[in-house]
């Protein structure tokens, strides 16, 4: 237990002194393993962690969706689309930020990965909000938070993994995610409205002009075509979600070439940018795998969850402890690492307490989604910071009100299971 | 030796039947038989190492023991991949008896020992079946069907039947079938509820044999050899018992699943003997190819003893 | 001098990573189109992407990404702390990861060499030699280790750091 806190302190110190997150997690995980298991096994862990963490077909969705976003952005397509939304909503205070949330919901229905979604919105919506004198802090926070919608709104890689780990219907989970996803989006809009009316971070745009709005709407057409292509490929049975991402890249490329808005320089910059973000994410995934490995061998999580399973506390208290434990894990770990570490004990516990597996899946997903926004490891904030150049500390501060709203939504889902279970109950008997 | 606590790696989750009726039972039996001298720290769900890294983790000392999915390690255990071939065992019990015998002595055991670990017991999944939106019987029905397969042997199995073998990551299979990207999938029936594939297919074969899958429990050799003879014997005896138990439990559970799916209105069908003969004839080249790729003579020897064991 | 060579190596590896991503796009699209139009899928696409291209595009550019400030770090504490302690912190921030990635390169490198010598094969649509798939990790990590060591010894005027 003492060494565990020493390792946590080491991680905190390394990160505080501006060592890259990935390096800090790798080093402290490695030191922890060396203390826990001895140096030989600790070195042995280094043999294949990077390879095993990167050699996965499902991961191609990350560089592909980021490349798609980069191409569209450098080729002006996304900017024009947001320009169109701006024409409809810009006259409202905070309207452009709300339009960004709306666009994030649409993107969430295209993308199963929250980092890819954040990258796309950072590259397109963020500069647009900055051009309209939104504060850096609010603009970067909105794209970071909007990106988390991709995890709950189907298709979602996290829901699929939960379904596989716990043998819960993926079809039901997907449908169950829809209303909580929309509820989250609504909560975000409310926060934006409050911020816009109490601060000067989200100024009003030009007055509304129907003719201009209708005219600007034609700019949405290319993006709609692309969406139909990608969603159509998945739901029409032509491609799996990761493959559809590659179709999306090709479609975007053709689109920007047709519009003649892409130079070779911008093209190579897009590819380079996609690689840059991917390398950063995979380095974090691989190094956090080393750290998770250490956590597994301490059996800390095991002991914690086993205690919960054997105590005589009430049903609600135990659920509260599970949620808090997941939130704390979310501060340090990747979403998928949390699922694989916690579900083997948390799921049977929840089932023993007679909770619904689909409801529990949405609650767990929502909880790990919040973890994408919390320091020190808040992957979405990292991606947004990398794409926008806004410092991490500034985004984390900007996220605070949205984070509180996310907790409110989580509490609603916990207290009113019908929000989650009504739609799948209606659609699937 | 005094008491030992072994770290045991496992890529399956604790709710999987292989864990409930196999690994967990075995650990408990060993702890009981050795009166607590040998205990385990269990690391399920790839917590300690990824599925493909379990063997390396044991030989390098990260773990002391692991339940290996043998087909994940075909690069260093090529002969053991014989179990993946289509058209051989018909039930988990039959396949397990053959694998257990071949792990006791012979090239398959030697190949595992050469990696620095000792096999304790092994068992198989019930043979892979085909799940589809139409009834796939004679090879003609399989023409140009998009069939999800995992690994090269299955891909070749699909091709030998005239179908197209398609690789799709496990978590994406559900959507791929639901949306029609796939026409069919070769799958172990026990894992069907886990992926909820019964929600999206209408026909499930019950007596096919489209390849197999084996698990082997291994312990690092230097550790195992240092245990006293009683403890070694206790682990092996508990293993022999567990292997047959988990095989039988899987066969029973598959039969229950089939009954359940039938009640749900899914066409659970048996191949006729004509269909079976035609399928096995069409799939024969898969075995030939395996023998050639795995290095001829030794592979042929393993195959012969596999055949001999299965016909007992 | 050595700095220039290091940059050239980083740029070359990064270019290879970028080409890897374009190859993924090309292969998957070819796979989809060919199977859609002619029922002729590019069978090896999945395995090539998973075993070779993904690890390559995720690790070859590790050092380039570090050079351009792409590995994210927290920024609550000022970049340069005053005094001797500040200098020690600035050095350790580079030397510790340099040692870590040197260890990763060494272990993953001997793992790759072992697989090459042993002739480990992934039996797929074709026989994939695994050693070459593993090899990209030590390549990317060792260049990163060199970059970290080089920066620790000869501090660079920070370009584009975040
Ligand atoms: Na989504
Ligand atoms: Na977090």
UniProtKB/TrEMBL annotation, chain A:
Compartment(s) of residence: Cell inner membrane
Keywords, comma-separated and alphabetical: Cell inner membrane, Cell membrane, Membrane, Transmembrane, Transmembrane helix, Transport
Top-level taxon of origin: Bacteria
UniProt topology in membrane: Multi-pass membrane protein
The UniProt record lists the keyword Plastid: no
Xref: InterPro entries: DctM, TRAP_DctM
Principal subcellular localization: membrane
Transmembrane segments: 50-69, 81-99, 138-162, 174-196, 220-238, 244-265, 277-297, 317-346, 358-379, 399-423
Family stated for the protein in its record: Belongs to the TRAP transporter large permease family.
NCBIfam families per the UniProt record, alphabetical: dctM
UniProt protein name: TRAP transporter large permease protein
Source organism of this protein record: Thalassobius vesicularis
TrEMBL record, chain C:
InterPro entries given in the database record: DctQ, TRAP_DctQ
Keywords, comma-separated and alphabetical: Cell inner membrane, Cell membrane, Membrane, Transmembrane, Transmembrane helix, Transport
One Pfam short name: DctQ
Gene Ontology biological process terms, A to Z: C4-dicarboxylate transport
Major location (coarse): membrane
Keyword set includes Cell membrane: yes
Entry's transmembrane regions: 12-32, 52-74, 94-117, 129-150
A molecular function GO annotation: transmembrane transporter activity
Membrane topology field: Multi-pass membrane protein
CC annotations in GO: plasma membrane
Coiled coil (residue ranges): none
Domain Tripartite ATP-independent periplasmic transporters DctQ component residues, every copy: 25-149
Location relative to the cell: Cell inner membrane
Subunit structure as annotated in this protein's UniProt entry: The complex comprises the extracytoplasmic solute receptor protein and the two transmembrane proteins.
Family: Belongs to the TRAP transporter small permease family.
Function of the protein: Part of the tripartite ATP-independent periplasmic (TRAP) transport system.
Protein name per its UniProtKB record: TRAP transporter small permease protein
Species assigned in the record: Thalassobius vesicularis
């Amino acid at each position: 237990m003492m060494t565990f806190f020493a390792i946590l302190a080491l991680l905190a110190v390394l990160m505080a002194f501006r060592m890259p997150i990935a390096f800090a997690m790798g080093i402290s995980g490695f030191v922890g393993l060396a203390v826990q298991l001895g140096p030989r096994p600790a070195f042995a862990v280094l043999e294949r962690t990077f390879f095993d963490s990167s050699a996965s077909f499902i991961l191609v969705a990350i560089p592909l969706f980021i490349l798609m976003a980069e191409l569209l952005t450098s080729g002006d397509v996304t900017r024009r689309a947001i320009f169109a939304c701006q024409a409809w909503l810009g006259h409202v205070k905070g309207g452009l930020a709300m339009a960004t949330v709306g666009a994030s919901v649409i993107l969430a229905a295209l993308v199963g990965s929250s980092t890819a979604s954040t990258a796309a919105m950072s590259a397109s919506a963020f500069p647009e909000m900055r051009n309209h004198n939104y504060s850096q802090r609010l603009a970067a926070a909105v794209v970071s938070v909007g990106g988390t919608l991709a995890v709950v709104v189907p298709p979602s890689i996290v829901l699929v993994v939960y379904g596989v780990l716990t043998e819960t219907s993926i079809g039901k989970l997907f449908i169950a995610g829809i209303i909580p996803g929309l509820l989250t989006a609504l909560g975000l809009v409310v926060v934006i409205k409050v911020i816009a009316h109490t601060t000067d971070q989200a100024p009003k745009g030009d007055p509304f002009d129907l003719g201009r709005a209708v005219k600007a709407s034609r700019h949405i057409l290319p993006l709609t075509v692309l969406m139909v292509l990608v969603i159509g490929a998945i739901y029409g049975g032509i491609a799996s979600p990761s493959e559809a991402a590659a179709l999306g890249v090709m479609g975007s490329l053709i689109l920007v070439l047709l519009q003649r808005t892409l130079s070779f320089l911008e093209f190579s910059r897009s590819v380079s940018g996609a690689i840059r973000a991917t390398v950063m994410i995979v380095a974090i995934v691989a190094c956090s795998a080393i750290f998770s490995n250490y956590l597994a061998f301490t059996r800390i999580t095991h002991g914690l969850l086993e205690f919960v399973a054997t105590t005589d506390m009430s049903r609600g208290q135990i659920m509260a402890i599970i949620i808090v434990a997941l939130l704390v894990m979310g501060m340090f770990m990747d979403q998928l690492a949390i699922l694989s570490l916690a579900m083997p004990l948390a799921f049977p516990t929840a089932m023993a307490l007679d909770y619904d597996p689909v409801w529990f899946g949405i609650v767990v997903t929502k909880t790990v989604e919040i973890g994408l926004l919390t320091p020190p490891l808040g992957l979405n904030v990292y991606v947004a910071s990398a794409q926008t150049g806004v410092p991490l500390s500034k985004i984390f501060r900007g996220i605070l009100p949205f984070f509180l709203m996310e907790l409110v939504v989580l509490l609603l889902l916990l207290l009113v299971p019908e929000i989650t279970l009504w739609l799948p109950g209606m659609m699937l008997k | 030796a005094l008491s030992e606590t072994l770290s045991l790696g496992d890529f399956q989750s604790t709710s999987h039947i292989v864990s409930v009726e196999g690994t967990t039972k075995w650990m408990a039996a060993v702890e009981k038989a050795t009166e607590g001298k040998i205990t385990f720290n269990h690391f399920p769900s790839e917590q300690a190492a990824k599925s493909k890294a379990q063997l390396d983790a044991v030989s390098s000392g990260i773990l002391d023991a692991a339940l290996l999915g043998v087909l994940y390690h075909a690069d260093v255990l090529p002969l053991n991949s014989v179990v993946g071939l289509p058209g051989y065992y018909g039930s988990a019990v039959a396949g397990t008896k053959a694998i257990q015998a071949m792990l006791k002595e012979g090239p398959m055991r030697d190949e595992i020992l050469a990696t620095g670990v000792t096999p304790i017991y092994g068992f198989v999944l019930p043979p892979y079946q085909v799940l589809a939106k139409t009834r796939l019987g004679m090879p003609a029905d399989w023409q140009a069907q998009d069939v999800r397969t995992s690994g090269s042997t299955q891909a070749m199995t699909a091709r030998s039947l005239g179908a197209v073998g398609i690789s799709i990551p496990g978590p994406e299979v559900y959507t791929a079938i639901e949306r029609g990207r796939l026409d069919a999938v070769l799958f172990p029936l026990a894992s069907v509820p886990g992926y909820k594939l019964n929600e999206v297919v209408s026909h499930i074969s019950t007596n096919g044999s489209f390849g197999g899958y084996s698990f082997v429990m291994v312990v690092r050799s230097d550790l195992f050899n240092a245990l006293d003879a009683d403890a070694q014997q206790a682990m092996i005896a508990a293993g022999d018992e567990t292997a047959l138990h988990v095989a039988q439990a899987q066969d029973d559970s598959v039969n229950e699943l089939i009954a359940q799916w039938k009640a749900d209105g899914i066409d659970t069908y048996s191949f006729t003997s004509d269909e079976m003969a035609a399928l096995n004839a069409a799939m024969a080249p898969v075995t030939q190819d395996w023998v050639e790729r795995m290095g001829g003579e030794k592979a042929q020897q393993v195959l012969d003893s596999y055949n001999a064991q299965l016909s007992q | 001098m050595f700095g220039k060579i290091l940059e050239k190596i980083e740029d070359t590896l990064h270019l290879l990573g970028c080409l890897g991503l374009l190859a993924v796009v090309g292969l998957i699209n070819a796979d989809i189109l060919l199977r859609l139009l002619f029922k002729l899928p590019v069978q090896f696409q999945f395995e090539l992407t998973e075993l070779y291209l993904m690890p390559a595009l995720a690790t070859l550019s590790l050092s380039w990404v570090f050079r351009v400030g792409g590995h994210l770090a927290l920024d609550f504490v000022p970049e340069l702390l005053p005094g001797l302690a500040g200098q020690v912190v600035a050095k350790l921030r580079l030397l510790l990861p340099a040692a870590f990635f040197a260890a990763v390169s060494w272990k993953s490198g001997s793992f790759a060499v072992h697989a090459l010598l042993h002739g480990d094969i992934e039996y797929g649509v074709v026989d994939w030699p695994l050693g070459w798939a593993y090899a990209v990790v030590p390549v990317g990590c060792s260049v990163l280790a060199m970059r970290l060591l080089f920066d620790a010894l000869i501090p660079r005027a920070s370009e584009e750091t975040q």
